[in-house]
Amino acid sequence: MSEINTAVAGVGWYQRIRDCDFVVATLVGVGNLLLGGMLFMMCLSSSITFGGPTAADTARMHDTSRLAQSVFFGWLLVGLLLFGVFRMTRSVITHLACMIVPLIGLVVVSAASR
């Protein structure tokens, strides 16, 4: 009898997480836009040089760009995996929509800094 109650209680937390999809989607959207803006500004500020860029400046720009891309794609994949496991469709759609806009900005800045 206690095994049945444990199984039902185990499903309860999963359902509670799925019921909070709207709130989670809102928080994910705000967090993604803040993270995307921070990564965009990080790439943008690393490409600002006074005068001609030296070899050290160029290396710093490429290192910063690689770091931003690693953080960005890691965040994107972990978010899609996590929200996919919990079947939170609003959060998945919000995550994708809010991550595509900064991706375009990162690609433009990376191409301009080369």
From TrEMBL:
UniProt keyword Membrane present: yes
Keywords of this entry: Membrane, Transmembrane, Transmembrane helix
Transmembrane segments: 22-46, 67-86, 92-112
Protein name, as recorded: Uncharacterized protein
Species for this entry: Kitasatospora aburaviensis
Lineage start: Bacteria, Bacillati, Actinomycetota, Actinomycetes, Kitasatosporales
